[in-house]
């Protein structure tokens, strides 16, 4: 049987775009031009997702799945990358003429890694995508010049990322030993000669992914990394890499019955519970907005895992919806921080924001309400959708914990709004507020409108999510190669 | 499990443990070379002589030499000739050398006792350079192309971080 493989259009466009950006740097450094090229590349890859595939290769191993789930997550990733691109512009770190061009090149490469992960059906293509996402992130995290905590954050990130990659590879090796195939799929432990090896492989792969997703108990690096790096890069770590990993994880388990109690299912359940409770408790005590968002991001991974654990028609649809809702709201907060007060990440700096910048404070409140899950913001419907999926899947215990930890979450999200409503204390000098540049302002407005619109009319996104089918990687017979 | 394979594995683990417990970079590097040699022997025993050769040439050869160069260059300009001499006394290189000697003896022993009972090799016998090349530039061509972008990403990141530190020291 003739096998063939293809390269998704978005990956192709991003590869070519990265080369064009390299060429640009080689000709001469000009941050503004490189930023425009980077934006064009991202927009072009967004357009390319919907086009028919152009690059086929006969006689090749199947590397990518041509399904709607891959396209959906790719669109989400590219849109997030565009948002991050817009909020990076005029950032003091990025505008530095000697290094700014690399920033946009690394952003393109990170997007390339994320997009290739979402469609990967082969261990090799998944791993290449993952590393293509992780290595540019390393450079981006260390991008703040002369900041010692940026170096510290990069160090923490690279060491823990290396550990996670090693675990993943070990898991892949054990799975290969057992099944003799490199398909990116959790092995069915039932019909194996050595079920223990296959189970160990799955658990190791899962642990590696949780490390990268920073779910509790693998979450230690996230808060420090978000605090140490610049705000757009923090958004990249908190949003883009999580979408990519979650999308890949869903595909990895597409063929496994998660109703069945087994070591892998138990690990996911334990991690989901720990993430929901631990993430919210971590966020509760923070005084830095970025650390609070790190805790919130961990908790949201826990909520997503509840949808992931509730097999049924609602599972993919609700996780897709939740991913979109989480990305929009979190990106909105980061865009606001980057635009209004790039230096003021302490929550107390936001005192009296409703008086000083009413529009920005209103937008911030919408994003926070969405993350807390309060109507009319989109986060309410997203959480409701996950609860529906959980009910359909019979995960009552998990839902109970979801509701309880959401109540904890309510406290710290609303605390920020309360602080913005209060007048600034006299003894503490007010930190200077800047106005965002036009693009960032437009980005914030669009994100706030999207948060409200999808919260009130979620129908479009629900219909989109209902058609999502995750294809497990094809069986060995149809690929022709191991 | 064959006895040579067990010896190689044991040597690799011992040397790796020494790598991460040394406090002086050069000492760790010498043990690292022993680890990589042991790994190369493991690859060879498993039926991948090409991978073993690459391990020796690229890792133990080129990359380790580069590491040693960097360690020497970083300390440039300091009066540490005596310190460097003290780095490589007999006590520091004799253990890695012994480990490498064990590997050599086992390898020679294994080579002279090629028996009818073959090693747990891959199904098609030893995997040579031709087989690897045909695979890489046949079915896995797209992954080769994608990994070039991975290398580009690593290169740009490393360049960026390295240059930052360099400029700060001015």
UniProtKB/TrEMBL annotation, chain A:
It is an enzyme of class 7 (translocase). It is a multi-pass membrane protein. Its main location: membrane. GO terms for molecular function: NADH dehydrogenase (quinone) (non-electrogenic) activity; NADH dehydrogenase (ubiquinone) activity; quinone binding. Keywords: Cell membrane, Membrane, NAD, Quinone, Translocase, Transmembrane, Transmembrane helix, Transport, Ubiquinone. GO terms for biological process: ATP synthesis coupled electron transport. It is found in: Cell membrane; Endomembrane system; Membrane. The chain crosses the membrane at residues 6-28, 35-57, 69-89, 101-120, 126-145, 157-177, 197-221, 233-254, 266-285, 292-314, 320-340, 361-386, 392-414, 435-457. One of its GO terms (cellular component) is endomembrane system. Residues 124-409 form the NADH:quinone oxidoreductase/Mrp antiporter transmembrane domain. Its EC number is 7.1.1.-. It comes from the Bacteria. It catalyses: a quinone + NADH + 5 H(+)(in) = a quinol + NAD(+) + 4 H(+)(out). InterPro entries: NADH-Q_OxRdtase_suN/2, ND/Mrp_TM. Belongs to the complex I subunit 2 family. NDH-1 shuttles electrons from NADH, via FMN and iron-sulfur (Fe-S) centers, to quinones in the respiratory chain. The immediate electron acceptor for the enzyme in this species is believed to be ubiquinone. Couples the redox reaction to proton translocation (for every two electrons transferred, four hydrogen ions are translocated across the cytoplasmic membrane), and thus conserves the redox energy in a proton gradient. NDH-1 is composed of 14 different subunits. Subunits NuoA, H, J, K, L, M, N constitute the membrane sector of the complex. This is NADH-quinone oxidoreductase subunit N. The lineage of its organism: Bacteria, Pseudomonadati, Pseudomonadota, Alphaproteobacteria, Acetobacterales.
From TrEMBL, chain B:
Keywords: Cell membrane, Membrane, NAD, Oxidoreductase, Quinone, Translocase, Transmembrane, Transmembrane helix. It is found in: Cell membrane. One of its GO terms (cellular component) is plasma membrane. Its main location: membrane. It catalyses: a quinone + NADH + 5 H(+)(in) = a quinol + NAD(+) + 4 H(+)(out). GO terms for molecular function: NADH dehydrogenase (ubiquinone) activity; oxidoreductase activity; quinone binding. It holds the Pfam family Oxidored_q3. The keyword Translocase applies. It is a multi-pass membrane protein. Its EC number is 7.1.1.-. The chain crosses the membrane at residues 6-24, 29-50, 56-76, 88-111, 140-161. NDH-1 shuttles electrons from NADH, via FMN and iron-sulfur (Fe-S) centers, to quinones in the respiratory chain. Couples the redox reaction to proton translocation (for every two electrons transferred, four hydrogen ions are translocated across the cytoplasmic membrane), and thus conserves the redox energy in a proton gradient. Belongs to the complex I subunit 6 family. Composed of 13 different subunits. Subunits NuoA, H, J, K, L, M, N constitute the membrane sector of the complex. This is NADH-quinone oxidoreductase subunit J. It comes from Brytella acorum. The gene is nuoJ.
